[in-house]
């Protein structure tokens, strides 16, 4: 059964370009409620652990370097059908293929520096939210 929560990060490229406000605006306007949020920076080890599922992919090293290169915003979002609706809101992994009006179309610069993360399943949303937030930090 679908849960009503997903997990997102505003990635280092978007934080660097001062897109935090614009991206949060799109998230709220699409009907998501922010139930946990923090501004933080991943170490290389933490980024490697977060993306361990991709460790066999050819871009893993590049991804870990990029995600530990600068601060990020991590958040848990709530809305009915959160995982699927948020994937629609952010658009395709490659911004060149992302639909008009999606966050990646508006704010991403490349397939690797693609502005935002969005969980791809309810199970991963729970795992990823727990990676960043304790039960005391979500409302
Ligand atoms: P997703 O973030 O849209 O779910 P995934 O395939 O799960 O896409 O990949 C995770 C992340 O790895 C992407 O968001 C992107 O930052 C990076 N990535 C994916 N494919 C490539 C690639 O071909 N080259 C470089 N980085 C990539």
TrEMBL record:
It is found in: Cytoplasm. It holds the Pfam family NDK. One of its GO terms (cellular component) is cytoplasm. Its main location: cytoplasm. SUPFAM superfamilies: Nucleoside diphosphate kinase, NDK. The keyword Nucleotide-binding applies. It is an enzyme of class 2 (transferase). GO terms for molecular function: ATP binding; metal ion binding; nucleoside diphosphate kinase activity. Keywords: ATP-binding, Cytoplasm, Kinase, Magnesium, Metal-binding, Nucleotide metabolism, Nucleotide-binding, Phosphoprotein, Transferase. It catalyses: a 2'-deoxyribonucleoside 5'-diphosphate + ATP = a 2'-deoxyribonucleoside 5'-triphosphate + ADP; a ribonucleoside 5'-diphosphate + ATP = a ribonucleoside 5'-triphosphate + ADP. HAMAP family: NDP_kinase. This is Nucleoside diphosphate kinase. The lineage of its organism: Bacteria, Pseudomonadati, Bacteroidota, Flavobacteriia, Flavobacteriales.
């Amino acid at each position: 059964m679908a849960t009503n929560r997903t997990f997102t990060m505003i990635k280092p490229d978007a934080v660097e370009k001062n897109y935090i406000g614009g991206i949060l605006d799109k998230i709220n306007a699409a009907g998501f409620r922010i139930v946990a949020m923090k501004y933080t920076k991943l170490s290389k080890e933490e980024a490697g652990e977060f993306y361990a599922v991709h460790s066999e992919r050819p871009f893993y090293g590049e991804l870990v370097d990029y995600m530990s290169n600068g601060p990020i915003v991590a958040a848990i979002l709530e809305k009915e059908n959160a995982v699927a609706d948020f994937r629609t809101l952010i658009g395709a992994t490659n911004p060149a293929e992302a639909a008009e009006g999606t966050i990646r179309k508006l704010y991403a610069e490349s397939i690797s520096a693609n502005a935002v993360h969005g969980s791809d399943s309810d199970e991963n949303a729970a795992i990823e939210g727990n990676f960043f937030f304790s039960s005391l930090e979500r409302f």
